[in-house]
Amino acid sequence: MKVLVVDDNTNDRLLLSRMLASKNYEVTEANNGLEALERVKVSKPDLIISDIMMPGMDGFTLLRELKKNEMTKDIPLVFYSAHFESEKDRELAVNLGASRYIVKPTQMKSLLQEIETVLREYEAGKIKYEESLIGTEEEYLKQYSERIVSKLDEKIVQLEKEIVERKRAEDGLKQALTALARSSAELEQFVHLGSRDLQQPLKTVLGNLELICQRNCGKFDKGDDELFTNTIDAVARMQKRNNDLIAYSRVGTRFETIDCNIILNCALDHLKTAIKKSGAVVTHDPLPIVSADKQQLVQLFHNLIDNSIRFKSKEQPRVHIAAVQKGNEWLFSVRDNGAGIDPLYHDRIFLISQRIYGNGSQSTGMGLAICKKIVERHGGRIWVESQLGKGSTFFFTLPAGEQP
Q1: Could you please report the per-residue DSSP string of 10-27?
Q2: Phi, psi of 72 (to 5 degrees)
Q3: Which residue in 125, 227, 271, 298 has a CA-CA distance of 20 to 30 Å to 62?
């Protein structure tokens, strides 16, 4: 048995077609009435299942055209529609000669039973062509227009309700985003102020411990010396971490046109002691002029180069900085020959407190998190490519055009 399914809703059409195909019906599909008429010319179906409201040609007009044609007037048609069904819709469908009027959604089992009943009645000769109860074209157009206009009115009312609900949801989302932004700003301010409050006490504790060690040099036994040394190291790490928290909370952005070569030189000047102590060699290609925040970009280069020097391998540290333009952005790279990073940790290293170099490192776990925040504030991305023992290359992007 051949069934033609007519529906502009792809999901509904596919669901119905698959259900019928699973029952061994030969199924063809059409998106609207015009396409359905073309399908019927090629192969006459035993049954048509059609939606009503469709672009191009709706279901009522499709049925009217089928009944006017000697070759197609006896094909049973079942309306399967969900568009604002009313008793007058059913009346028009029956008057045009529809075999059934089924309202979506209905259980597939019930729908299949209705379809099988129609086909049995058709085969048994119980469904025969009868003249339309709507005789003249004028009367048909009158009833048809009333029903379509009514459906369109109801559709417009429904759309207006959806627009109001969507606008209400959007307003709620805007309020939530505004509240979130305010909360985020308050949190950053809290972190900044709290970290600043810790600066002086940490500085005082560290200074007092160092003074005690200097005054009592050689007087402590080995265990006490080790205890003081470990405590001084712990306080120093805490102080650096606190300073990094302050830097992280200060990442607000003021754009200006800057030369990245000058920015890099500023970062290298800050790192000259670490570079000299480690014997690191830092080289770079010509770097571009970009629109960015000067202090943040110095911090970005500083942190990435410092990271490469700090986590060096047994070889002399070598760091190379380069930049190439890719479409509307600059792609920067900071490549080193250091210890490398296990790929398992590539996504985690940019999170606060994700220290992946072991307990012996002096990392606070903030440096790369600050880099990520700076790059994202500039509308860019940052990531790493690395393997253990094979060095690392940190990539980040900055827009090539001027910032708004």
Answers
A1: HHHHHHHHHHHHHTT-EE
A2: -125, 0
A3: 125
Instruction: Report the phi/psi class of residue 370: left, alpha or beta, with left for phi > 0 and alpha for psi in -120 to 50.
Output: alpha
In 101-221, which residue ranges form alpha helices assigned H by DSSP?
A: 108-123, 137-215
Residue with the two structure tokens 């940790």 = 345
Looking at the chain, the number of H-run helices and the number of E-run strands are 11, 12
Question: Could you give the 3-state DSSP secondary structure of residue 55?
Answer: coil
Distance CA 124, CA 115 (A): 14
Distance CA 217, CA 109 (A): 91
CA distance 317 to 321: 13
Contact 50, 98 (CB under 8 A): no
The neighbouring-strand residues paired with 325 are: 330
Position 164, amino acid:
V
192-216 pLDDT, tens digit per residue, is 555 555 566 666 766 777 777 777 7
Helix (H, G, I), strand (E, B) or coil at 315: coil
Does pLDDT of 254 surpass 50? yes
- What pTM was estimated for this model as a whole? 0.44
Beta strands in 318-388 (DSSP E): 318-326, 329-336, 382-386
Residue tagged 């005690």 (tokens): 212
Helical (H) or strand (E) element with 236? helix 222-249
pLDDT of residue 251: 52
Q: Residue 358's pLDDT band (boundaries 50, 70, 90)?
A: very low
